[in-house]
Please model this.
Amino acid sequence: MTEHAAEPTAPELSDEELSEQKQVRLAKRDRLLAEGEAYPVSVPITTTIAKVRERFANLETDATTGEIVGLAGRVVHSRNTGKLCFASLQAGDGQRIQAMVSLGEVGEESLQRWKDLVDLGDHVFVSGEVISSRRGELSVMVKDWQIAAKAILPLPNLHSELSDEARVRSRYLDLIVREQARFVVQARAKVNASLRDTFAKHDYLEVETPMLQTMHGGASARPFVTHSNAFDTELFLRIAPELFLKRAVVGGIDRVFEINRNFRNEGADSTHSPEFAMLEAYQAYGDYNQIADLTQEMIQNAAVAVSGSMTVQWADGTAFDLGGDWDRISMYESLSEASGISITPETPLAELTALAEKEGVEVHLANHGKYVEELWEHFVKDSLVRPTFVMDFPVETSPLVRAHRSKAGVVEKWDLYIRGFELATGYSELVDPVVQRERFVEQALLASKGDLEAMRLDEEFLRALEHGMPPSGGMGMGIDRLLMAITGLGIRETILFPLVK
Model:
């Protein structure tokens, strides 16, 4: 709050009103340029709003400190009176302090310039004594001030919410006016730092692998295609870093991870974005059970880094517990239980087809594995609210995964589900180059039948495997989805600048 009654809510401005305001502000810019600068290269800042608020948090009402500070912020509230003007200055982290510009401190000319030139949205530098006002508000009694950057367009109405569309199209405005938008950016930084810290404790090395690739692979997804003028060749934006990270393991980097961008030329919805941040990690002499343990540890550590607890607070006020040991369930057994029909890797395709038709489940380019996964999503997925590892997938849908050590027809793969969406996946990696070639050939056959997500046969990756890759466990997790699990928000809210039409 500033040292005055709350401003009345202003109506949204029409395009014509915005144009008029812009012309008025441009005229003020011209005057500032004529008198000096509207956009100085620097201002003599001595501290920040956050540091002043921390140092003088317990200042008594109507007290002085004798402490002179120089700080800057964006004007988000303002009121001009005869001999005293009030402004609320906001820092980038959202913290605010009141600036009081009085006739007695700055003189008549400076006070009038403030009234004439300062608008909402301007960045302003103020210098003066830190005080507590008569209403107990921490303030700077201004002795000197300067425009740090003149805003030509006004801020949106601070008393009403931006629309969802405005939030993502003009995220810079969202960051200015909405605390939750700033929180998500800060939370994301804390999550990434926590992930790196957890990996460091387990002796992992962080690397960077190509985003432009001559052959896409590492996942079942449609790629973005581009062209290199320098090499006169078709290139793909990567859909996953997996095949290059495995090359690193072949080369002796036994514990390796990467946090970077992936691109998939597919649909966009509340849990999918064409461009997204991805974490992948591989551990030599590990398996999918050890990788599940590591994944749980990473997510729980990230929750604590953001919330101070494994119980996180979602945007809608829901408290969600990420603590404890998470359940591990079998895909086939959970599907059998939910459907009331025994379904195993030996269940004939005709039976799966009949069940899908009965339930209205459509399966494109069907095989046994795809029917099982689609039916599992229909019967089971939405019931998984608590974090749950879904274990042991059909071999047909997992071409990069090792066959299960004791169960025929399935592979050692898990997907981690939290509140109904997939957050991460983990494998015991397929390291036999002969079997891997066979799997790639099967994928090529699917591609020839029209499966646009099928993998291509990657000879260079196979050549790397033929030099010997140790038994390994690997995992992949969407960073944006991890933020969704911690904040309860949709994917477009967790990405700072999401792709929009």
